[in-house]
Amino acid sequence: MQGEPSDLGHLQSIMRAIELACSSIQMNFNPSEAEATILSLSQTPHPYQACKFILEHSQVADARFHAVAAVRDAALREWSVLTSVDKRSLISFCLCYVMQHASLPEGYVQTKVSSVAAQLMKRGWLEFAAAEKEAFFVEVKQSIIGRHGVDVQISGINFLASLVSEFSPSTSTAIGLPREFHEQCRVSLELDYLKTFYSWAQEAALGVTNRIVESDSAVPEAKVCTAALCLMLQILNWDFQHYSSDGARSSINVFSVDIRYNGSSAIRSECILVQLGPSWRDILISSGHVGWLLSVYGALRLKFSSEGYWLDCPIAVSARKLIVQLCSLTGTIFPSDNHQMQEHHLVQLLSGIVQWIHPPDEISKAIECGRSESEMLDGCRALLAVATITSPFVFDGLLKSICHFGTISLLSALMSNILKSPMINNPEEETWSCVARDILLDTWTALLATAECSNGIAFLPSEGISAAASLFALIVESEVKAASTSAFNDDDGSDYFQASISGMDERLSSYGLIARASIEFSVPLLTRLLSERFAWLHQGRGTADPTATLEELYSLLLICGHVLADEGEGELPLVPEAIQTQFVDITEANKHPVVILSCSILYFAEKSVDPEIRASIFSPRLMEAVIWFLARWSCTYLLPPEDNRDSNNSLVQDTSQQFRKTICDFFGEHGQGKHALDAIVRISMAALISYPGEKDLQELICRQLLRGLVRRKDICVHLLVLDSWHNLANSFANDRTFFSLNAALQRSLAQTLVLQASGMKHFEASLYVRDLMSHTTAYLVELSGKNNLISVAQLPDTIMMVSCLMERLRGAASATEPRTQKAVYDLGISVMSPVLVLIEAYKHESAVVYLLVKFVAQWVDGQIIYLEAQETAVLVNFCMSLLKLYSSHNIGQISMSRSSTLINEAKAEKFKCLRALLQLLASLCSKDLVDFSSEPIESQGISIGQVVYVGLHIITPLVSMDSLKYPKLCHDYFSLLSHMLEVYPEMVAQLNAEAFVHIMATLDFGLHHQDIEIVDKCLRALKALASYHYKETIAGRLGLGLHAAGFKDSDGKFLEGIISRFLFSLLQLLLFEDYSPDLVSAAADALLPLILCEQGLYQQLGNELIERQTDPEHKSRLANALHALVSSNRLSSTLDRINYQRFRKNLLGFLIEVRGFLRKA
Amino acid sequence: MSDEEHHFESKADAGASKTYPQQAGTIRKNGYIVIKARPCKVVEVSTSKTGKHGHAKCHFVGIDIFTAKKLEDIVPSSHNCDVPHVNRTDYQLIDISEDGFVSLLTESGSTKDDLRLPTDENLLTQIKEGFAEGKDLIVTVMSAMGEEQICALKDIGPK
């Protein structure tokens, strides 16, 4: 196909070819050829005339679709060569086409054409003059307000909709321009056009309102109204940035993601705030827009029974959505008249919305009888939107002005109705009542979370508190009922279960907020419900089946935990404000409701220590809840730190002081605190050993409860004097009991026990750690000394023992702190030779070798920075012998199995080992960065750089290209490599040829990796290598020597020098391959020293490249660009910061100039 | 802390029994287990409960280390499972006989002639070619529950 064909016959032949291609694609006849035909249309230069011809004459809709797509592709590609007349005529052609063919049945062609018009308009947006844009929009406006009939009206509105979505950054189509362009378009549209579009949509909708309201059946005008409503909704959903209340946001850079909600309010349902400025006031507020919208929807509601309209018909849905969206209107659109106008606006909206949700019982009955629930759900969403932008007081008052009840009462009535619904506890299906419940819970969260932030002083109206109280009672009742009915369900192990746990967690924290809003009521309620169930269990022991009660207790304990304490997430959680500020008048600690509730649970939990009661009452699942509660509770309440009491927050001081005093006295050092701590330790100990094989439970105890305790130093001090804790430590160190725990949990337990040493003095801590691990080290030493080690080692029980002990050692090593560092060092030293012996003995058992290596890596990581030169030497020698041993076992080894799964597993295990070894080397490197020793390690003749190179040398043969496919290994390897090459490039020269070639091969592999980070690391390594070589050779030294000059390998083949090889492959990559644009500056930094080293080769490569071009114009462009790359911007031949920066600019310009045509060729 | 007794001492002697009991809950992925009287390597462990308030049970997926067949088992996690004694011994290869047997040199200096060549194609060609080229080859023989198989090969000699 030639550019600009003019004769009719030619145009027709193109049309026929395209039509044929479309139909053969549809029939799946030779699709690749057909696709090529269609593609060729869009790749032809200037295909516009042919496309227009097809659009106007073809009977095949698909052909028209592809023609307009071709217009888009070609125009965007050739935009810079088109004249401005061409550009405008293309846009107006598309617009006219849409308007003229508005009544055609093939909607997708229309949509495509109007979106192409929108894209082209956006492409030219910044170059067109205002009058030119105006000219387009005059036509559009004429059609929208209905001058040319209903169909054209719809087309006009749809065009605006595509335009708005093209200009919104999140929905725009890529047109190959930088983000700033999109941003400028967005700002321009937002400031100058959006409001106008909105008013046109209003006008269009108003114009057809009467026709819709007056007619009894569906009329075509309803579609116009629907489209207009959708456009309005779309405009309100726009991410307005210039009207935000603080005004500061307009200056924030465009790449920042702005966060609307702070983390504390866990709002799940979608609720977008619409923040608008004062200029919108006239069309949204004072024009009676809301009144009109409500009256239209009101009129529609009456017609729902008649033909053509129903609850979920498009016009009703979009009207409701718009109403909900208007509920979240906020910002400076409302004048600062003490919120009067905003309240008036909300009251007006609510007056319409209230019919959707009131009275709740009748509505839910109707829904159960088959009515659609969407209106009711939208009503709930509107409440959520209102709650998000108002304070609880205002929220409650809104309805009072028009009804005899407040909004909070309506909210709680709605909620209780939904909780009573029989469908609510059906976990298999997401029913409407679950959706409604979640939205309403979010509404409560929105109301209460704002109140929480404002210190909670009388934040809710009193009716609100009582509403929350009765609601909480209902919630608990419903949860308990759900628990007892589901107690016998056996639906576990599925993926769904996990998802529902996190969903449940979110729900429970909303419940917690509701309970805290009515804390005076909710805490005693929970106490009563719990003690009832405790009593039932004791009475029915041995006779009745307790399962239902157990499950009820399980969910009550979870609720209690969420009410009383917050999730610490690693920080020290404070007592919730609501609990601090209430109960001020109670001075006797043992009458404090929170104390009573906590004590009753503690007392109950303590009974689990009795084996008989444990067997009959405490099922593993119940115990999990107990432990979870204790962990959460103890972080907040147990032995509160003293310094918390003199809090600086003067606002809450006077009220909370009282509370703090009460609780500190009770669970503090001088009250019941120590007793409670003792109880918790005894409960944990008993649970750890008496639930064999209950991994989840054991994990909770080790990883949450005990770990949480030792996290606080003041608790460690108290643990020190507890007999129960001594018991625990003693049996861990000396008994076989804890070998029944999973090995990973033993590691965690060892870590916890060693961490507890932070409560001791230096000397004591060392002794304690030694005692704790003495049997472990003794066993390993003894085992490694056995004559028949090889056969003993392979016995299953020995393997298990060694695995467990290595995990324990690793746990202890990971808990290294200044206070325990010496003891852990000695620990490691004493098992050094056993570790080497065992690595030998277990050379076929990579799972065990992994544990051994992992321990060493952890140990070195914890120790290295503290060690003196002498100790470092010992450690380094040990690491080297370990590396040598490992590599001698694994080089040249071929394992085989019939099962591919087993082979893959074995490979994966090997790679895990290798990764641990790389980590070991990496932690050795850190000695050069941080060093606390008294004399430099060089005094002992150690150079870390050399040591690590030797390590790399040993390991690299094991790192195959195959193994680099494992992302974690790959990452670690290249981090280490780039670090080494950057910090110690001079050592590379000392590597032997084989190792060097291998390292360079991996570097080449890394350059072509798809992970940007890895490519970046490789580029940094290259830069370091090349700049080292350049600087050295300038100074007249050897630099990389033979490696750079090229040499013959063992087979006599000549290998090119490393610098020239990478110069070639980097240029190749930059010019011809795909990569992320983010890498260009890193590549520039590597390329500059490479070119400087090998200027001759650069010229030669450049000439070859120029020779390959056939087009003389391309030849000269390429020659100029290659020249400019190394000469423009006053580039010099030094390697300093400024020069690097200049070269970055040069390279970017070079790539923009030549990459396009080079790659096409 | 008391150190009156050394609990950790290994009680079993070499070659004492073919299997060893271990609590199901402590068996990890990549460990060994006996399923349906076959020695297996564990490739997957998952736990579930018998009823909401019942006890945990472990679900093991294992692969027979000799036949590569996939086997599964469910065991209450507090119960014991049998763990096979998997032994691996290195021998130097001294001869390959024409009837498909290999002749191996033991550490004590005697020969072991009762082992067949592996059926795995790849390993088989590696052994045959390596032997033909006169390389010094070490083969690793895996044995468990009375069965033996060559499972790995290593070239230690000069070319």
Task: Describe, in plain words, how this protein is organized in 3D.
The complex is a heterodimer of chains A (1161) and B (159). Chain A is mainly α. In chain A, 70% of the residues lie in helices and 1% in strands. In chain A, strands 1-2 form a two-stranded parallel sheet. In chain A, strand 4 and strand 5 form a beta hairpin. Chain A is flat and about 100 Å long. The N terminus of chain A is likely disordered. Chain B is mostly beta strands and 159 residues long. Chain B is built from 1 helix and 11 strands. In chain B, the strands form 3 sheets. Chain B has a 5-stranded antiparallel sheet with strand order 9-8-7-10-11, with helices on one face. In chain B, strand 3 and strand 4 form a beta hairpin. The interface between A and B is large, with 68 and 70 residues. Strand 3 of chain A pairs antiparallel with strand 11 of chain B. Chain B: Belongs to the eIF-5A family. Chain B: Pfam families: eIF-5a, IF5A-like_N. Chain B: This is Eukaryotic translation initiation factor 5A. Chain B: It comes from Nepenthes gracilis. Chain B: Keywords: Hypusine, Initiation factor, Protein biosynthesis. Chain A: GO terms for molecular function: nuclear export signal receptor activity.
Short description:
The complex is a heterodimer of chains A (1161) and B (159). With 1161 residues, chain A is mainly α.
Features:
heterodimer, A: 1161 residues, mainly alpha, two-stranded parallel ribbon, two-stranded antiparallel ribbon, 5 strands, disordered N terminus, B: 159 residues, mainly beta, five-stranded antiparallel β-sheet, four-stranded antiparallel β-sheet, 11 strands, 8% helix, elongated, Exportin-4 (chain A), transport (chain A), XPO4/7-like (chain A), nucleus (chain A)
Shape type of chain B:
elongated
Tell me the radius of gyration of chain A: 37 Å
Main sheet characteristics of chain B: 5 strands, antiparallel
Biggest sheet, spatial arrangement of strands of chain A: 1-2
Could you list the spans of chain B in which at least 5 consecutive residues all have pLDDT below 50?
1-7, 9-15
Total of DSSP H or I helical runs spanning 4+ residues of chain A? 52
Q: Oligomeric status of the shown chains?
A: heterodimer
